[in-house]
Amino acid sequence: MHGTITPPRQAWYRVLYIQVLIAIVLGVVLGWAAPETAKSMKWLGDAFIALIKMMIAPVIFCTIVHGIASMGDLKKVGRVGLKALIYFEVVSTLALLVGVLVAEVVKPGAGFGANVATLDPKAVATYTAAAQKDSVVQHILGLIPKNFLDAFVGGDLLQVLVVSILTGVVISGLGERAAPVNAVIDTMGKIFFGIIAIVVKLAPLGAFGAMAFTIGQYGLASLGNLLGLVATFYMTSLLFVLVGLGTIAWLNGFSILRFLVYIKDELLIVLGTSSSETVLPQMMQKMEGLGASKPVVGLVIPTGYSFNLDGTNIYMTLATLFLAQAVGADLSFGQYATIIAVAMLTSKGASGVTGAGFITLAATLAAIPNSPVPVAAMTLVLGIDKFMSECRALTNLVGNGVATVVVSNWEGELDRTKLAAAMARPVAVGDRVEAQPLENAI
Fold this sequence. Notes:
The protein is mostly helical. Helices cover 73% and strands 0% of the residues. It has a single domain (12-441), classed as Sodium:dicarboxylate symporter (Proton glutamate symport protein), CATH 1.10.3860. Helix 3 (42-71) runs parallel beside helix 8 (157-174) and helix 16 (310-326) packs antiparallel against helix 17 (333-346). It is globular.
C-alpha cells in the first residue's frame, strides 16, 4: 500500500516567516537599547523596499497583459473587472462605516483637549501640499502617463494598470497573430518573478532595518499619550478582518483564520516594512496556489492595490473623528456624509506606499466643507503614523487576498481542491507553494 509522500520540512531557522519574525524582534530591541545606532539601520529597510518596487511595474504589466490576452473573450475581462470594482466599493464603504462607528462608540479623542491655536501647520506642510493636488481632475489626469515608458519609469501603479489593460486588450484583439508576443510576455513575467524570489530572501534584513529605525526614531515611552488611538485602530482593523472579511470568507467556503496562516510570510514582511507593495508578486503566486484562476489573480490583485484599501479607509474615518474629538469639534450629519464620500475618492491610488494614508487623511480634512477640524490638527497623530501605517498595510493586504478568492469564486474559476488542501494544512501548503520551482508556482 502506497502512502502519500510528504515533502521534507525545512529547518525552522530557514523558514522565511520565522527569520522575519526574529528580525523584527531584534529591530525592536536595538531601537530600544541603542536608538542612534538603530536609526542608522534605516537604509536596510529602504534598500529592500527599493529592490521590490523596481520589479512591481514589470510584474504587473506582464501579469495583466498575459491574463487579458489569455482570456481571449474581452467580455469576460470586462465582467471580471466590473465584479471586482463592485466588490471593492461595497467592502470599502463597509470599512469606512466601521471606522465611524468605532470612533463614535469608543471616542478615542475625547478629553484630549488640544488647542487649535497652538497647532503648528509647518509640521505637516509636506503632506498638505500633496493633498492640495488631490482632486477628481488630478486623479483622472494622473491616470495618463506622459508616454508608454513613463509609467514604468515613474512607478505609478495606476498608470501601469492603464497601459497594461490597453496592451492586453489589443493583443487579445489580434488573436493568433499576437500569440508569439503573448508567449514572450509570459516568459518575461516568469523571469521577473524569479528575480523577486531572489530579492525576497533579503526580507529579514529589510524588516530589521525598518523596525529598528522606527523604534529608534520615535521611541515607545514618548508615544504613551496616543497609544489609545493606536490600540483602537488595531482592534478595529482586527474586528473588520475577523468579522467582516471573515463572514465574506465563510460565505465563499474558506476560513479567514486559516487564510491568515496561509499568507503568514507576507503578513510578517509587511509588518516589518509597513508597505504591502513589498509582497505584491508573492501574493499573486499565493492566490494561485490557493486555487484562484491566474487571469482573475492578474486583474484583481493589482487593481485592488489602488481600489480596495480597507485598512486605509478605516484609518481615515477613525483618525478624522479622533482629531475632531481631540479639538472639541462637533460634526454635523452632512459633514459625516462628506467625510465618507471624500474618503472613498481620496483613498483610490493610495497604494501600499508608506505614508500614502497620511496624505489621503490631509486631503479628506481639507475637503470637508466649513470643517471645524483644521488640517494642522494632523500634527497630533504625526508621531504615531508609522505605527498606524503597518496596520493599514496589513489590513489592505488581507482584504485584497480575500477579494481575489471571492471574485474567482463568482466567476466559477476557483479550484476547490487546491482551496481545501490549503485550508486543511495552511502552514504546510503555504511552505510548499513558496518552495516549489517557479515555473510550477506561476
